[in-house]
Amino acid sequence: MNTLSYSNAKLITPNFAKLIEKTAVLSPAIQEEIILQWFDDIENELQWQKTLEQPQPKLEQLALAALQQSKNL
Prior knowledge:
Number of helices: 3
Structural class: mainly alpha
Number of strands: 0
């Protein structure tokens, strides 16, 4: 079995290291289920961050209109 040591990885928080240690005691089948869920969650988070980084012209237009309306009151 190939194993990868995460002890040399960058930016691992203490909680993440603890999570890995706790997961390591589970069966390989459960570990794989968790890994697939993590991959999906990570991919969704990366996509969400990418979406938020995109310009939002419609939202900007609505915000400007709301500001203008507020000034007119």
